[in-house]
Amino acid sequence: MTRQLHLNAFLMTTGHHEASWRLPESDPYAHVDLAHYAGLARTAERGTFDSLFLADGPHLWGSVAQRPAGALEPLTLLTALATATEHIGLIATASTSYNSPYNLARRFASLDIISGGRAGWNIVTTAGAEAARNFGVDEEPAHAERYARAAEFLDVALKLWDSWEDDAIVADKAAGVWGDDAKIHPPRHRGTYFGVEGALNVPRSPQGYPLLVQAGSSEDGKAFAARYAEAVFTAQQTVEEARAFYADLKARTAAAGRDPDHVKVLPGIVPVIGSTEAEARAHEQLLEDHIVHRHGVANLEGLLRLPAGTLELDALLPAELPPEDAIEGARSRYTLVVGLARRERLTVRQLIGRLGGGRGHLTFAGTPEQVADAIETWFTQGAADGFNIMPPVLPSGLETFVDHVVPILRARGLLRTAYGPRRTLRERYGLPRPANQYAAPALATA
Amino acid sequence: MTRQLHLNAFLMTTGHHEASWRLPESDPYAHVDLAHYAGLARTAERGTFDSLFLADGPHLWGSVAQRPAGALEPLTLLTALATATEHIGLIATASTSYNSPYNLARRFASLDIISGGRAGWNIVTTAGAEAARNFGVDEEPAHAERYARAAEFLDVALKLWDSWEDDAIVADKAAGVWGDDAKIHPPRHRGTYFGVEGALNVPRSPQGYPLLVQAGSSEDGKAFAARYAEAVFTAQQTVEEARAFYADLKARTAAAGRDPDHVKVLPGIVPVIGSTEAEARAHEQLLEDHIVHRHGVANLEGLLRLPAGTLELDALLPAELPPEDAIEGARSRYTLVVGLARRERLTVRQLIGRLGGGRGHLTFAGTPEQVADAIETWFTQGAADGFNIMPPVLPSGLETFVDHVVPILRARGLLRTAYGPRRTLRERYGLPRPANQYAAPALATA
């Protein structure tokens, strides 16, 4: 069989374009409407996507004037979606900086059990002082410290998920023995950031533990991904940059002693689809016309750590900007945005227009055939194992993709036509079920 | 209309009797089976219960040899059950000692939205060193400190749930204004245990916030309940004790400046039902015959803080026991168990038999008519506003209650025959929707 594309549906309220909520078709209350998300999940499942995904940060982001704000907590929403779907993987973002390993490990194990092995965790370290101040921390933690904490978090979580061997339950009613205490392994962890003594109070889940996903593209982020991630979401503007990122991440993964095929690289793409190229461009323009520029300027000033009022709409970015090293927050996003503005000599207005669609992800406007071509090119030229599909408007953008792009990808033999017998999210991504670190290795049979 | 009973179904794997999993009918894997819980929820809904409830503690409790251990995390499981039911309230236990207010407030608000206003929170402070050591704390926190933290947790959580006024979303597409920043109220809380600066990132939910439930019966627990709780679960062995507890809690609630009718008192009852009294007794004996006494002795030694090997099966409890003041953990449970043993001069074996059924809650064996009589007596004699129904075996015990006791209660006019137009959990319990502490009071109209 031809190598198969992996598709993830990145769901975001009324769509990834920041002005999408203003379109006549959009429901401005969609962000708290389970039926809206259940419909999206079923559409993605109709398109035989591998998974769907929800971003998250534990704070209210900016002004609520700007766009639909506040959302259902991702693990909670995905649990409800687990019951509305049968096959699709369910990837929730959760922070290693503002959770405790015991609680979070329980929740992911519970979702994995409830969904029959379809849980995934997009591991984020959560930049920014706003989030920190919701958890009693005055200053945002330093970039390096966030990643050190994340690594220890992962090590503890993996111990917790392995704390029950797969066959720890014996269920011997006659003897009155339900479980085998010898197959329970308390982590007894005492580290820099965490102390976790006891075993998890959830048995080992169908996948062993959730699919581990990562999206940071900074140096620390890539090192973390090489060590732990099984799928990586990334923002890449050109196929050349994407190929370099892909090759680098696969090499780092091999250097970390892992099979490079066990990390799947999925760049984000914002497909703006029209039945003609002109129709696609007109749709893009319609969205751009709905951008409220005062919001865009404020967001950009926030990202670049500039005082309010610094940026002018019809000028280029200032020649002098704070260096990347000074940014403790979303460092790779900063680099991407500044790079894009400099490379294409964009005014602030133009930059806001480009970012409005996908916050730095590739926006591609065209016919279904052209979108499929772009996907195939990146996929076959060593730039991607699949894509993080980020429709500019929801639900219509996902429906259009599934109805018009998916059939082309299937006809080209690049995408499954049905889910088939594989059940778990890891199986869909072609990844092995992890062995339990505490279990005795199976004896080789002669 | 006659004053109406409130019924809560306390769900616990294969049942509240510790030996229930050993019966031939029981599924020893039920604790991780969503279908098992969905079936229970639908049965409770068929019985027009107000709510269902899941207990919890963030640690693996004792030996897994003893009984089904490890369970789905309650808020996760209840989210899945929200989609499997239409009317019934969903009450999850969560700890104020081992959660952060921001994360927990988000999750309850999300469940309340997803369920259409059916979320409840059983607030626990979580005793014991085992839980503490899963969260980097070496010694269990002192009883008084746990309650001080719980009170601050509640105050912050209530601010977070009110941080969006009900009409904060304006959704003005033409003007490009989604929300009204003036109706967002960041808590800006800096206290002893928590610092929470920003507003919640979930809009105000249908109920405003989840129904607040409490179950501690210590002095601190009762003071806390008087201040915050809208429903109280309690373990009472006799109608006299229950009346005293009921009168005391209502008086404390009035003294705290609240309407005493706004806290509903629900004692636990373990109904062992047979078509004749003899059949009920035989069922009770069958369960007791399945108790593994070595587990019961170990559990009792743990509760009483006695060294292993202290207790003898066929002797009374030792005359000298650690005083209640020395117990930092489940203080009211300690008092109840010692009181029961002393009052009825029970041997350790007899005490284990009594506790095996309901861990100190009232076990009542009889015909459906007798069970209904007991419920009516407590309800009409000032001992209860309703009951926490704790079937010894699940699902059969709940089915029997719904099929045989519920019709009697309905015939007597004590229990609704259908859910009717009220939608939220608070409406079912006859409680008002809380006003937002930040909103301007509505103007009186002449």
Describe what you observe in this structure.
- Two copies of one chain form a homodimer.
- Chain A is 38% helix and 13% strand.
- By secondary structure, chain A is of the alpha/beta class.
- Chain A has a single domain (6-275, 362-428), classed as Alpha-Beta Barrel (TIM Barrel), CATH 3.20.20.30.
- In chain A, strand 9 (211-214), helix 6 and strand 10 (231-234) form a beta-alpha-beta unit.
- In chain A, helix 1 (34-46) packs across helix 2 and helix 9 crosses helix 11.
- Chain A starts with 5 loop residues before the first strand and ends in an 18-residue tail after the last helix.
- At the A-B interface, helix 2, helix 3, strand 6 and strand 8 of A face helix 2, helix 3, strand 6 and strand 8 of B.
Write a concise synopsis of the structure shown.
The structure is a homodimer of 446-residue chains. Chain A is of the alpha/beta class.
